[in-house]
Amino acid sequence: RFCAFLPLGGGNAGIMGGLRRSRPRVLALLQTAGVLMISSVRDATAQPCPNLCNAHGQCSDPDGVCDCYEGWTGADCSLMICPYGPAWADKAVSVDTAHQDMECSNRGLCNRGTGVCSCEDDRFEGAACERKSCSSDCLTVGRCLSMEYYASQKDPGEGTVYTYEDIWDAEMMYGCVCDDGYFGPDCSLRECPSGDDPLTGTTSDTYNGVQYNEKQVITCTASGGTFTLAFRGETTDNIPYDATADEVLDYFEELSTVTNDFYTAVDVDFDDDAACSVSGNKFTIEFLQDFGNLPLVVADSSNLKMSIATSSAKMTIATTTDGSKEDHDCSDRGICDYTTGICSCSTGYDTSDGYGNEGQRGDCGYATASVTACPGETSCTGHGTCEGTPTYACQCSNGYTGADCSLYTCPYGNSWFSLPTDDEESHLTTGKAECADMGLCDRTTGACSCMDGFEGAACDTMSCPGDPACNDHGDCLSMSALAEAATSNGDALDLTYGATPNDPDTWDFEMIQGCDCDDGYFGYDCSLMSCPYGDDPMTKYQFNEVHEITCETDDDDDGYFTLTFREETTASISVSAGADDVEAALEALDSITYVDVYFDAALKDDDATGTVCSSSETTFYVEFKYPTDDVPLMTYAASGPTISIKEYQAGTKEYIECSGRGLCDYTTGLCSCFTGYGASDGQGSEGLLDNCGYVLPIAGTD
């Protein structure tokens, strides 16, 4: 004896078609061959879960549904889950609440065979695509740091060190912190020597007044031990408490952050012979080659000692004279070539010693002859106003910069990567930067050249993924617009994101964009195709959703109403319409495939002669056949009749991908059904929905 099993349906339409056309003859033929029909449902329910859950899940009885172990997914637990991270862009779930955890942080695609995220090329990285890549890896002349870590590394001498730990992008937004001598979002630009303008700060300069070097006084109270001094983030070796002025000078000038290439960088002046004493000694540091208003020197006194039990060792630092000299590229008397870091001095100027004399700084701070005019072939290149004697400095018009006003400025935008302006506060209007710190300014045109993945005149908008954006299968929307498009079970949520100006938690409301995919597509870049959904045919004792609608007229046959489901509204339905008319109107919506409309909930009788409205009030029912599950309550608009709608029966069926009985091919949007399952009508019978929601009949031979 042998048994053979022959599926009759789904992909075998030809066989089923033959059965429908000549059922008696075919059955006689099958019986002659010794074939008898066996109950398909009984055989299917007797089978274990699909592919035995691939040993990656537990099979639940009696429905044969796989409950996958952690890290696995799919109807047969054959697919791997990728790491999750806060979404770069998503739809808000409540007012001002977004960036929920999503697979690959919604900036990559999951490889279901490996569980590894494939992140958007050259833009995002990390196991969950949770880090923004640094442009060109900072060209090896900078460090790629997170916002959180960058904030913690601020020089305390520059002011309060603010934290940035709790905002959603604290460990996601990365940027380049360039080595000394380099700058720009990718560290591709070279800094030119900076210095004091040689014509300003004199007694005859009534515009700027007399200018001074920075002086800071340090008081050290100790009887032993060592201390250190730090300037612009770099720290000296341990300095003995009784060090002399010359020794402190030597320690301090060892710092690379102090300008001392050609000249003495600082002057150290002691009130006493030693740096520290029990009563507290003072010494002054005057900066001779670093100009402008400088950060405070930072002292570490933790290794100092005090011999007096009633007192403790300590150090204090205060600025006694603010540095008021300029510290501008090329001393504001030349143009910097940012590709080389070399100044091209204006006519009549050359490199200086920092004090208006000829020198080796390379900063254009030396006037080679008496100056009687502002720089430029025409005064200030026609793009500014000449101050005249004694400074002959250009005051550039809006949109122009440079010593001779020959260079364009670029648009400013909220900075993508900069130090916080307060605890947990960054990227706001208080921190605007040229090209938003995410682009390079073309000084010949005034246009920003944005880093990859950013756009806008000021590079202040993160681009949507895909080429073209969202692969032409969706809309590229800002975070605020995505919030407005948010839905729950198909109904609009009416949410906002970033409506409160300068809210640190929603700084990205117009800066970050994401894709809102068209129906039938999904994924961070809308590159994946959705497969049909449906009810699992193996789960039992479940119900379709039914809405109860009452309609009462005032004997006016001209009235009408409309029904709205998941943001779609039917054409006008007359009060004299029948059940079939309502059914046709609802099935014309994209969001509904099949409904039944009837007047008797028990008999489900559509009564071809009945109307859905009457002067004595008519009750009718709408049963959702596809989609299944717990659908949202319909709403209405009426002109004439009085309408009410309520839920008569909640939908308890599934509405899941491939009905939970197949796997989706996201490149085609087609379900690959497990053996024994095929296309359904949404209710477990054979149909045209390729959603694996139909248990194929099985024929056996004896």
Give the low-confidence spans. 1-45
N/C terminus separation: 6 Å
What summary fits the major beta sheet? 5 strands, antiparallel
How many helices? 7
Indicate the proportion of strand residues.
Answer: 25-35%
The residue-averaged pLDDT reads 92
The coarse overall form would be elongated
Radius of gyration: 38 Å
- Going by helix content, strand content and strand pairing, the class is mainly beta
Summarize the structure.
8% of the residues lie in helices and 32% in strands. It has 702 residues and is mainly β.
Please tag this protein with its features.
single chain, 702 residues, mainly beta, 5-stranded antiparallel β-sheet, 4-stranded antiparallel β-sheet, 7 helices, elongated, disordered N terminus
Give the secondary structure arrangement, pairings included.
Blueprint: E1 6-7, H1 13-21, H2 23-32, E2 35-38, H3 40-46, E3 57-60, E4 65-68, E5 72-73, E6 79-80, E7 84-86, E8 101-103, E9 108-111, E10 116-119, E11 124-125, E12 131-132, E13 142-146, H4 147-152, E14 174-178, E15 182-183, E16 189-190, E17 194-195, E18 215-221, E19 224-231, E20 234-235, E21 239-240, H5 245-253, E22 266-270, E23 281-287, E24 298-300, E25 304-305, E26 314-321, E27 328-329, E28 334-337, E29 342-345, E30 349-350, E31 366-367, E32 384-386, E33 394-396, E34 400-401, E35 407-408, E36 412-414, E37 432-434, E38 439-442, E39 447-450, E40 454-455, E41 461-462, E42 474-478, H6 479-484, E43 487-488, E44 491-492, E45 513-517, E46 521-522, E47 528-529, E48 533-534, E49 546-552, E50 560-565, E51 568-569, E52 573-574, H7 579-587, E53 594-598, E54 618-626, E55 635-639, E56 642-649, E57 656-657, E58 662-665, E59 670-673, E60 677-680, E61 689-695, E62 698-701
Helix pairs in contact: 1-2
